[in-house]
Amino acid sequence: MRQVLFTDLDGTLLDLHDYSYDAALPALESLKKRNIPVVFCTAKTLAENEYYQKEMGIEDPFIVENGGAIFIPDNYFSFEFECKKKGNYCVIELGASYGELREALKEIRKETGFKITGFGDMTAEEVAEDANFSVEKAKLAKEKEYNESFIFDEPKEKDAILFAKIKEKGFSVTHGGRYYNIHGKNADKGKSVKILIGLFKKEYGAVKTIGVGDSKNDISMLKAVEHPALVKNKKGAWLDISLPNLYKAKGEGPEGWVEVVEKFLL
Ligand SMILES: [Mg+2]
Questions:
Q1: Per-residue pLDDT tens for 220-258?
Q2: How far is the CA of 78 from the centre of ligand 1 (A)?
Q3: Which of 17, 8, 69 is nearest to 42 (CA)?
Q4: Are 124 and 135 in contact (CB under 8 A)?
Q5: Which of the residues 71, 134, 162, 210 has the least number of beta carbons within 10 Å of its own beta carbon?
Q6: Is 60 one of the catalytic residues?
Q7: Rounded to two decimals, what is the model's pTM?
Q8: Could you tell me the domains of the chain?
Q9: How far is the CA of 257 from the centre of ligand 1 (A)?
């Protein structure tokens, strides 16, 4: 049976702090040799996904901006399906537009006085410093289309108010490893994963699906696959969820990722 791996990037395949993935290189090579699709399912933008795909030599579909859109390389599947042509991709869009999301954050800031700083409010240099990126990578991270990442500089108790406000405006919010994200309510990782699984099944018949993540914004993805797996976060702990079938890797980030790949795919 064909196998497909859906993977989060930050804190999972990439180290949460320095974004390294050296530990995963041999496993990535083995996946390539076996022709197993590695589908990124991440908060990252198109430009960032392309950067990591190129670095890792991966040419499979990917899910950007927390489920905002699915990018499928031209002719990846042998059949036609409904999508928007964009460069060399066929794109299925689920997210809201960046402009609408920026506007909603602006309104919330005005209504509550909360300290909310979006990537769109920061220069590439500021994003670079905050996220511990190079300025080059920060530029890629700022090319958002379907989701806005922001710093919420308020006590944890204010989360509930913020979340309610975002919902009231008709959008959704997730909290990943480092940033909060506002996005369209039809866009989540799980929905995008389900759509892609449908396409893979149409192409290959039955497929075995594995998903690996580290934080809250991965829950919907983990629910959408047959074999969900968690890696440990920087505190050496797993996200506190219970799912049937959930595998918990002993390693943090990329080391845990390798464990999952070896257990389920190699
Ligand atoms: Mg993550």
A1: 999 999 999 999 998 999 999 999 999 999 999 999 999
A2: 31
A3: 8
A4: yes
A5: 134
A6: no
A7: 0.90
A8: 2-94+187-264 (3.40.50.1000), 98-184 (3.30.980.20)
A9: 12
